[in-house]
Predict the 3D structure of the following.
Amino acid sequence: MDITIHATFLPHTDPEASLAFYRDTLGFELRNDVGYGGMRWLTVGPPDQPGTSIVLHPPAADPGITDEERRTIAEMMAKGTYAIITLATKDLDGTFERLQAGDAEVVQEPTEQPYGIRDCAFRDPAGNLIRINELR
């Protein structure tokens, strides 16, 4: 079987703030910007990995989600417990400095974890947790 990760989805609450974070702070490229019904879906990804993308989407845009579920999603996003993505880099310290200089919300400075990785963590403008592992 030949399967790859093509796209993952993260919610956003402000498309411009999310675009600035993923493009200007993380260095991802904007691949698609789609508007519909006053909402926007942004597709971003690393320039050297054209087959892997993150789609930043309006939370709870699915018409099958109830009002109660929308409230729960909004509450979880506000607490930063709704969505998580783990990225990886060979230069964790340099990446951390770039994110910190870009005013990203630091959750955890670069740390050796007891389970064998070194990583750091930030929140994007929507509150999504972004963990960044060091590739060794």
Remarks:
- The mean pLDDT is 94.
- Residues 67-79 form the longest helix (13 residues).
- The two ends are 27 Å apart (CA to CA).
